[in-house]
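Quick one, tokens below. Sequence please?
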């Protein structure tokens, strides 16, 4: 016995932003403050499993993915600094600059961890009411290098409220 083939539909939206970071405890040049022009590819499927579309033929309108995800990125990461919560030295430095914009992460802001954060925390919070779930997030740090975070298993376990995982300081 085997399951018959089904067609699974998904959408991929590309999102771009600029941000600074450094990698705490990195053994080489990534320990310095620096920045990247990041590109994110986010893949979403319908909560029904990716086999159904609406009366227009869509999983969800592309513009909604842009509005929600790019809106969040613009507000929180774009032109800001991403800093690991244990990196006291970088936090002290960034707080001395006025105005400043930084985002405290629960782990080092590598491309891997940024992809994980977008997949596990941001996407469920900002896309949840659209009836879609992010299945994969790819964070391109350079034209040649990207990290991939992919969801395996039941997405309903992802219930981390956005507020509890992060600290945001928009002092201007
Ligand atoms: Zn870097």
């Amino acid at each position: 016995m085997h399951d018959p083939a089904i067609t699974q539909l998904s959408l991929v939206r590309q999102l771009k932003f600029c941000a600074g970071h450094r990698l705490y405890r990195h053994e080489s040049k990534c320990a310095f403050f620096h920045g990247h022009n990041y590109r994110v590819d986010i893949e979403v499927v319908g909560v029904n499993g990716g086999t159904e579309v609406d009366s227009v033929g869509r999983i969800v309108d592309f513009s909604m993915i842009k509005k929600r995800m790019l809106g969040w990125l613009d507000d929180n990461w774009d032109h800001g600094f991403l800093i690991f919560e244990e990196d006291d030295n970088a936090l002290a430095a960034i707080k001395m600059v006025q105005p400043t914009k930084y985002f405290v992460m629960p782990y080092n802001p590598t491309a891997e961890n940024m992809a994980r954060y977008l997949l596990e925390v941001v996407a469920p919070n900002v896309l949840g009411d659209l009836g879609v779930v992010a299945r994969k997030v790819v964070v391109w740090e350079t034209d040649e290098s990207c990290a991939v975070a992919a969801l395996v298993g039941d997405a309903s376990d992802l219930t981390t409220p956005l507020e509890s995982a992060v600290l945001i300081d928009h002092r201007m």
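Residues 111-127 form the longest helix (17 residues). Residues 21, 30, 34, 36, 141 surround zinc ion (CB under 6 Å).
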